[in-house]
Structures are given as C-alpha cells and as structure tokens.
# Entry
Amino acid sequence: MSRVYNFSAGPSVLPESVLKKAAAEMLDYEGSGQSVMEMSHRSKVYDSIIKSAESLLREIMQIPDNYKVLFLQGGASSQFAMVPMNLMTKNKKADYILTGQWATKAFKEAAHYGDAVAVASSKDKTFSYIPKVDKSTFRPDADYVHICMNNTIYGTVYHELPDTGDIPLVADISSCILSKPIDVSKFALLYAGAQKNMAPAGLTVVIVREDFIGNAMDITPTMFNYQTHADNGSMFNTPPCYTIYIAKLVLEWIKNEIGGLEKMQEINEKKAAMLYDFLDNSKLFKGTVVPEDRSLMNVPFVTGDADLDAKFVKEATEAGFVNLKGHRTVGGMRASIYNAMPVEGVEKLVAFMKDFEEKNS
Ligand SMILES: *Cc1c(COP(=O)(O)O)cnc(C)c1O
# Structure
C-alpha cells in the first residue's frame, strides 16, 4: 500500500488514524455485530454516536448553550437558500460581501427570496483580497450580513471579522471549520459542508443561535426549516449516519491526538508559513493573494507560464503530490493544506518545489 499526499480542495485528506479506526470498526462496531453503515439511526448504539459527535463539536468549538447544532444533508449549497428562507424574514433584506465564487452563489440564491444586495466585492482583482468594509457599508435594517470566511478557490480568509454593528452576522465556514478557535458568539449562524475539514461528503453542520430559529418564510419546505431539525435533534429524517460517525472520529482525533483547536492552529500556521515563506522567496513561483488576507487552508500559486504550471502539476502528481491543479478561474496551482495534511506533507512539497525551481529557471 502506498498513500499519496492529497492536496485536494474537497473532498479532501482525512487523518490516517481515523481511516484506520473506521476500517477496524467496519464489520463490527463496538460489539454491535454491525457496521455503522448498516444500523438503524433510531438505535441506541447510533444515538450514542450522534450525541457524542454533537457534544465533542460543542466542547472543541466552545459553542454556547443558546446555539443549536444541526447535522443536515444538502451541502453548504443548500444553506445558500436555507439561510435567507429562515433569516431574511423581518425586513426581507440581507447584505452580502462577495469574496469569491461561493459567496457569489450564496448571494444569487438569496436574491430569489428577498432584497439581497452585494455591498462589497473583490471581483475587480480576481478575488485576491478581502474588501475593506465598516459599519456604513451595511444597510442598518438588513436582517443579516453574509460572509464566506475562508475562500476555498481564491485562498483568502477573514483574519478579522467585519464590524456589522447590531446586524447579525452569518458565515460560510466550510473550508476553515476546526482549523483554529472561533468565537461562535459573534455569529447568528455558521454553516459548513463537512468534506473539507471534518468528514467525507454528505454532512452539513449548521450552528445557529436559538432566537434565529422559528421565523421561517411560509413558503419554506419542511426540510429547509431549521425548526424542523432543531425540534427533532437532527433526526426528523435519516441523517447522514456514516458521515456523522467519521466526523465523530475526526473530532476525537482533534481532541485527543492534536490537543484541541489552539494546537490545531499552531500546526496549521506552521504548515502555511512554510509554503508562504517559500513562495515569497521563490524566483519561479508566486502566491496570488495579498499577504494580509492569506488563507491558512488553501494556498494558490502560479509560475506565470501556463505550460510550466501544467508541467509542474504533472511532475508533482508523478511524485505523489496529487490534486494540485488550481481552480479553472485562477489557473496555476492550489495546495489545500487542511487539518489532516501532515506537516511532513508540506515539507516534502516545498522540497519538491525547490527542486523543480532549480531545474526550470
Ligand atoms: C466547497 C464549498 C461550498 C460548497 O459545498 P457543497 O457541500 O458542495 O455544497 C460552499 N462554500 C465553501 C466555502 C466551500 O468551500
């Protein structure tokens, strides 16, 4: 068996110890004589899995008691509609900051359900920075402001939250959840597709303050109403059982093997610094994002020559560094260095890049 270093933006690398544990428990989960894939979601044994996944997430992220944690399906993309259907209900206005493709999709979806306005954007420079905003950027009667915290495709992140005054803040944290501590109390709602930094695809986590539940538009489908899932402990219908189980193993890994989110952040900063330091000093490669807004998780870079980019991606793949091709709208390369990418993977990638630079410049 040989495993590659997988720099995919999502679905993405999972901790090896989690995969081993899942393999060991595949045929017989804790003496139940069944795989977690096979068991009833209403069984006692499954109930303890989903409950410990939630309590671990609450503990690790320090989620306050007045927030609900929902385990849903439909991907982060379904939240682009669920958020406005449930939250754009008082004044029917919401303000969106466009920092990339996901934020733009969220904005366009919201515009179907009310008065959504794009109040700031970094599209003018291929989303290579986070636009500066202040309280005056937002409409005082907006029901919420929506941001995409970490921009998976373009490699930018909010190192500081925008000041929205009293306007509730909603964030898509799909590609940065669990990468470092985050003050949940600053948000009305957070959501994340699990397949970037938490689990395989199929699970979407929503963390929502209780007073934002229960005001959905009349047209809201039952399955799109946060109330439905909050009232039923994420068991209104069959939840994505196996994915929630892997999320639980990943959370145990963060708690017991890593030592929590402060430690996770230290490791992530170390990995990102290795790559950015190399890029800043390279004669061949360069990062595409302004230094002050660089993501810890997704690192896009280019050589400036499309043929050389292609050659790099090809040779890297052959050497066991896979999924480094950049998104088609940016070109070049992108290394996604999520929690489960070991430090050693980034060290070896940097060494490979140095070697490629020497041979090609
Ligand atoms: C991947 C991603 C999405 C889309 O997630 P799906 O689960 O595929 O719908 C949305 N937002 C961000 C920031 C992402 O990285």
Notes: The chain has nine helices and 14 strands.
